[in-house]
Amino acid sequence: MRTRAWYGLPVFIAAAVTGCGGDNLTLPGGGVPAKIVASAGDGQSAVVGTAVATPPAVLVTDARDNPVAGALVTFQVVAGSGSVDPSTVATGASGVAAVSSWTFGPTPGVNQLTATVEGSSVSGNPVTFQGTGVGAEANKLVFVVQPRSGTANAAITPAVQVQVQDPSGTPVTSAAVAIGIVLGTNPTGATLTGGDPVTAVNGIATFPNLRVSQGGTGYTLAAFATGYVTGASTAFNMTGTGGGGSPGSTRTSVSSSANPSTVGQTVTFTARVTANSGGATPTGTVQFLIDGRNFGSAVGLTNGSAQSQGTSSLTAGTHTVLVTYAPNSASFTASAGTLTQNVGSGPAATTTTVSSSANPSTFGQSVTFTARVTANGGGATPTGSVQFTIDGSDFGSPVSLSNGSAQSQAITSLTPGTHSIQAVYGPSSSSFGASTGSLTQTVNGQVPTTLSLTTSPNPSTFGSPVTLTATVTSTALTPTGAVTFFDGACGSGTSLGSASLTASGTGSATATISVSTLSAGPHGLTGCYPGDATLGPSQGAQTQTVNQLATQTQVSSSVNPSTAGQSVTFTATVSAAVGTPDGTVDFRSGSCSGTDLSGGPVTLSNGQAPFTTASLPGGGTTTTVVGCYSGSTNYQASSGSVNQLVN
């Protein structure tokens, strides 16, 4: 008796005994597994260490070829040391069980995977998947038998061998590439023979007859093949003088426009071919190779030199640059040179330059500044922004680069003298490095100034001090230097003195003196600022009124009372608060309009004027003798008197 659970019906638990055959499983949601076949993923190839493109899958069916759901399938790697994930998978409603990935092992060759469904008497159980692991792309040449030191012109033994390998160092035996050898480091300018291209056998090229023509220390060999990274040997030495370089032997050297360089930076290479014996300059062409691949077409020599095209696509790391020289006549022999180009992963270095729309400029002239940012060695155009500064302070906001250039706003207020202009480049990506450019801007001319002059007190009195204050202002700079004060016009008037300017605010400075020598009357005072290299001259005027000083006059008698006919001397003394008055005194009787007693004015000497008379009326007569001071430029008039009794 056998019980079955039909595919698609609710779950049953059933068991059946098949005569002599053992148990078949009846699974939840399906029938009894009767057959297993590969449905996908067989016969694939993949690079060693990587997963196949199509994950392996099997189809499990029952005896009527209906898919069986829920059957457990076990996947197991049986060859190639790879891995499978997951190792156990249940069939789905379609009867298919598939793994997520099958990764080949590290060794090229056969990889096998089996898939076994549970149960017995299942046709096709287990299914075997076949796969082939292949090495990564062959891309480099490696010296597996290094050159040994020996004698010049003798074959290097044992024979040098170069092997083709993939990036992981696995030999690529299927590579039948033509490999040549040249001197990499050539300290003596020797010639190498026996290095013509040899086709690799089982991935190896053998060179049994390599000869170096000259003794020397530190030779190296370079192996090259189109499309392969150039290989470099260890250093070796040659003893003996040998035959020297042949008359037409040459030496090829390579230089880089920037080494080290950075990712994205444009680099060019220059080959220089020289004849070892001197004389004529080699002619012909050179072929540049980067990591074994031709870089552009052959370039003709000009005066023994040739330059490659530029490249900005070198990846970070080291790159072998090989140059092979092909002569165009029998006068010269072929040669080659190598260079290791180091490319950093950091941002490309940049250079920022600054230019001015007018340098030198004049004060008040409108000036703009332009920054130009370039990647050192060329390549892509830098992007980002530039911050302009003037004398260390930001000038405007950052300006975005357009095709590598940025222009500042205009400025008209640069003061005379020199100014430090900087453009600070800020990159917008990690592809470029920051840089700063500088410029010295010269501004000619002078900043105009204005001088205002004040006096205090005004009016003043003769002999009293008067304070003169000059205020010098400008629109851009704080004036420095000194101001000279004149009674009259600048330069031609009477100098009253000078005073240094003291800053009194932005763009303003003052200078002050005090004078007390101004005579009475009006004075046209002037403050004169001469300016300097950056500030223009200016002057200001002020009318100062100086009033006369009051005086006092006293009259004294030498004898009082006196007798008729007796000589009496009268002395008028004129005084003031400041100084000694000058001028004359009239002596009169009774008042300043009375009878003249002195016969005319008497001149003051040291403030005194004496007058002697014996003609005053006697008989007990009293005469009022009046001294009348007429005043002077600086002193007011005044009078004094004395009563003289004459008996």
Task: Give an overview in words.
This protein is an all-beta fold. It has 6 domains: 15-134, Immunoglobulins (Immunoglobulin-like), CATH 2.60.40; 140-239, Immunoglobulins (Immunoglobulin-like); 250-344, Immunoglobulin-like (Sandwich); 350-444, Immunoglobulin-like (Sandwich); 449-547, Immunoglobulins (Immunoglobulin-like), CATH 2.60.40.10; 551-646, Immunoglobulins (Immunoglobulin-like). 0% of the residues lie in helices and 50% in strands. The chain is built from no helices and 58 strands. The strands form 15 sheets. Strands 14, 16, 18, 21, 22 and 23 form a 6-stranded mixed β-sheet that branches. Strands 25, 27, 28, 29, 31 and 32 form a 6-stranded mixed β-sheet that branches. Strands 34, 36, 37, 38, 40 and 41 form a 6-stranded mixed β-sheet that branches. The chain is elongated and about 185 Å long. The relative contact order is 0.06. Residues 1-24 have low confidence and may be disordered.
